[in-house]
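Appendix B. Raw example, untouched.
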Amino acid sequence: MDGFLLINKPVGWTSHDVVSRIKRQFHFPKVGHTGTLDPFASGLLILCLGKATKLAYLFSELDKIYTGTILFGVSYDTLDTTGKCLETRSVNIKEEEIIESMQSFIGTYAQIPPMFSALKVEGKKLYDLARQGIEITRDARDVMIYEFIPTSPFIDQKLSFLAHVSKGTYIRTLAYDLAQKLGNIAALESLHRLSVGSYSVLDAKTIEDVTTDDIITLDQFFKDTPCLVLNDYMIRLVQNGVYLDQRQTTTHQPFIVKDEKGHMIAYYTVTSEGIYAPVIIF
C-alpha cells in the first residue's frame, strides 16, 4: 500500500504513537508522517505509506490553519499548559487591545523557536536539551501570519482564536509573543489543526474508524501533475533510476513519467537547469 492517510489525531497521542498504531493495525511495512503535531494538540495528521514516505517533504512547504485557546497571566517552560508553571501574573488587558495586537502580527515576523520543540540544532533535538535543563540560543526565523483572529470573547483570562500560518510557525510561540507585546504572559491551553495546505481535518478519520479504503493513492495524489510519456527504451532506463535532461523535456516543474500505455513509472523533480532526478520509481 503506497499513499497517504488523513488522521484526526486525538489529544494525548504523539505523532509517533499514531504512526506505530497504524503500522500495527494494517501491517504496513513503512509508515511516516508529514509534520509533528504536539501530544496536547489534536487535528489533522497526514501519514505517508510505503513509497509515499519519500514524498513527506512535499508537505513541509504548505501553510496550516489552527484553532486554539490562549490563557493569559501564566507562563510555562513549554509555552503550553502541559509544562512546568514558571510564573503567574494579574491580567489587566482589554479585548480590544488583544485584537489590535493580533492584527499587528499579520505579515512576516521573526519568530524564535521554543526550546520544547523537535527542531534540531547541531544534531540535537531542542526538547532533549530542554528536558536536561539546558537552554541554548536559537536563531529567529521569518514566518508568515496570514490570519490571526479571535473566535470567542475574552473571558476568564482566556481567548479562543484561529490562525492561518506559514510553514515553520510555532503557535505556542505566537501566543507567547502576543502576550509579550501586551506587556503580559500567556500559554497555549489547547490547539487543533484544521488543515495542511488543501487537506482538511473534515476529510480525516479517527484512528478507530480509518480503513484502507481511506488511502489517497499515488494515482489520486498525482492526478494533476504534468506527465512525460517515454518509449520502451527510455522507460527501462527510468526504471533503473537514470537522470533525465533537456533531451527529454525542458520543464521547470516536477513531473510523472508514464509509458506509452499510460502506466505511472516514476516521479521526477528538477535538480538544476535541465536536469531531472527520480524521487520515486513505482
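End of appendix B.
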